[in-house]
Design goal:
about 300 residues, 7-stranded mixed β-sheet
């Protein structure tokens, strides 16, 4: 089947959202996300399961239902902002992006060994591009190739306009080599760390259940000496983003490399839990992420987010 219809749909959405004033763009995005929830099928079910994991097993069903619906609204806002963005709007985006504490990022940059940003799928997870741009810190991120090549190329172009250079998860050693070289030159790498999409990773306990999370953030920091920072790029209540940067991550130093990566990834899982728990309805993982989830067939069993 041709890639063209899906690509034209995305470009049409980009054109439509691009015409809207910012408040209307956010409202329409949230409304469309909310409207998708009743027909969300398995994704809506996984949103409910995730909200129960975060909010606790004793949380009333109506609270879980409302939270899961809000997850879809928040995800709709994410796509609306992505479709709305244009390079000419950079200054407005920058003005409305707030960072709670840039101190750890300055310190990491000044060490000169590179910075690894580990992020959950919350809020607008392209926002670290704003931090990196402000600090003149070249940023590289890893993405997965979508089945539609034209859409993949379009997302790459959008993220490049946000100051983010993209490499692909499926390119194996080539990708690893580029990430290592980028960090050793003093650059920054942003990695989504709460879901494995490649089938590789480390078994950890995450929100009370065993699953696999990507080893990349800890493995890269261990190999290069880069500073690892956990970042939450949350939506603000109004326009823009409120980015939380946690203090420098404590890398394990005991044991062999495999043991250090395993222990470090478990520590990172706990940090991600704490970040996600502050704004649980902004957590946009609606794909199978645990063996107990419907549709689970191993890491990367469902590809969807750009």
């Amino acid at each position: 089947m041709s890639d063209l219809p899906g690509y034209l749909l995305y470009r049409g959405l980009s054109g439509t959202f691009g015409l809207l004033p910012e408040p209307a763009m956010r409202s329409v995005g949230r409304a469309l996300g909310m409207a998708a929830y009743p027909v969300g099928g398995r994704r809506a079910e996984i949103a409910r399961r995730n909200m129960r994991r975060v909010l606790g097993p004793e949380t009333p069903d109506d609270v879980i239902e409302a939270a899961a619906r809000e997850v879809f609204a928040s995800y709709g806002r994410y796509y609306a902002e992505l479709f709305w963005y244009r390079p000419r709007r950079w200054d407005a985006v920058l003005e409305r992006t707030r960072v709670d504490d840039l101190g750890p990022v300055y310190a990491a940059r000044d060490r000169g060994k590179g910075v690894v940003f580990a992020l959950p799928h919350v809020g607008n997870f392209d926002a670290p591009g704003v931090i990196a741009h402000e600090l003149d810190l070249p940023l590289m991120a890893v993405a997965e190739r979508l089945p539609n090549r034209r859409i993949t190329d379009w997302f790459v172009q959008v993220r490049r306009s946000l100051g983010i250079e993209i490499v692909f998860a499926g390119d194996g050693r080539k990708t690893t080599s580029r990430l290592i070289g980028h960090l050793r030159s003093g650059g920054a790498v942003a990695l989504l760390a709460d879901r494995s999409v490649t089938g590789n990773g480390v078994e950890v306990e995450f929100f009370g259940e065993r699953t696999v999370l990507p080893a990349g953030p800890v493995a890269l920091a261990d190999r290069t000496g880069a500073t690892l920072l956990t970042v939450g790029p949350f939506f603000a209540d109004g326009p823009g983003a409120d980015i939380v940067v946690r203090d420098t991550f404590e890398m394990p130093i005991e044991g062999d490399r495999a043991a250090r990566i395993a222990e470090g990834t478990q520590r990172l899982a706990h940090e991600l839990e704490e970040l996600i728990s502050t704004h649980p309805t902004q957590w946009h993982v609606v794909q199978p992420n645990w063996p107990s989830d419907p549709g689970w067939s191993g890491p990367g069993s469902e590809r969807s987010e750009p």
